[in-house]
Amino acid sequence: MTTQALVTQIREKRSFLCVGLDTDMNKIPEHLKAEEDPLFAFNKAIIDATHEYAVAYKPNIAFYEAHGIEGWKSLKKTIDYLNKHHPELFTIADAKRGDIGNTATMYANAFFKDLNFDSVTVAPYMGRDSVEPFLQFKNKHTILLALTSNPGAFDFQTGSDDGEELYKKVLRTSATYENASQLMYVVGATKAEYLKEIRTLVPDSFLLVPGVGAQGGSLEEVCKYGLNSQVGLLINSSRGIIYASSGEDFAEVAGNKAAELQEQMAKWL
Ligand SMILES: O=c1ccn([C@@H]2O[C@H](COP(=O)(O)O)[C@@H](O)[C@H]2O)c(=O)[nH]1
């Protein structure tokens, strides 16, 4: 998907909501466990109930990998369902990969060619040759971890042994990579106070912002400092939407939660 198509969808829906599909067998409603593929049955119901309020979906790959081959089948069915029934939606494989060049090419093939996601999250710490293979794919996007939402982000990412914080180095250096216009960045909603400065370094890039909802990040604070002229934000909520109810009404309640977030986002557009 082109960035322009994403921006158009955001403007049409007046939403920059990304629904996280962190689908956990221990948290899905009991009645779904009798289904042939409970993870997919859950995801399909969530997508059906939330898609009019969202512009993006982000399955976190760990939740599928944890189930071996059956989990990969559920993931494949989910991305195929999204691509077939809602091709306008932006899809993110939250895989946080990163390795030497030839291996990175294999990861890129897996998520862009085989599974046909629009984007994949990548850990940038192995440097240029570990990222550029992902950037060879036209109209696919590579989302680099910059300043993550978790407390451990302060262990390394805000460290500045040589005078520049690591997350700033990631933003500045990656902008010199081949096809850097296909880069986006992860910035946690719990780090909203950093967004003003981040926007001076990457004024035009899209930011994927997890951490609203279960992790306590504020949507208002993120919007205040993170929006740019092309909107430039995808705000993710996973548990806050998909597990808002554990009863038979889970999809309806998830739809209501997504609608609430969309309403708050629309005020900023
Ligand atoms: O910095 C990061 C990077 C990725 N994530 C992922 O986003 C979702 C957040 O889920 P919630 O349930 O809304 O907290 C999850 O898949 C994380 O692995 C992140 O939280 N922070």
From TrEMBL:
EC number of the protein: 4.1.1.23
Record-annotated active site: 96 (proton donor)
Alphabetized UniProt keyword annotations: Decarboxylase, Lyase, Pyrimidine biosynthesis
Catalysed reactions listed for this entry: orotidine 5'-phosphate + H(+) = UMP + CO2
Annotated signal sequence range: none
Pathway the protein acts in: Pyrimidine metabolism; UMP biosynthesis via de novo pathway; UMP from orotate: step 2/2
Broadest EC class assigned to this enzyme: lyase
GO biological process, one term: 'de novo' UMP biosynthetic process
SUPFAM superfamilies attached to this UniProt entry: Ribulose-phoshate binding barrel (SSF51366)
Highest taxon in the source lineage: Bacteria
Domain Orotidine 5'-phosphate decarboxylase, first and last residues per copy: 16-254
GO MF: orotidine-5'-phosphate decarboxylase activity
Membership in a protein family: Belongs to the OMP decarboxylase family. Type 2 subfamily.
Name this polypeptide is given: Orotidine 5'-phosphate decarboxylase
Protein source organism: Robertkochia marina
Taxonomy of the source species: Bacteria, Pseudomonadati, Bacteroidota, Flavobacteriia, Flavobacteriales
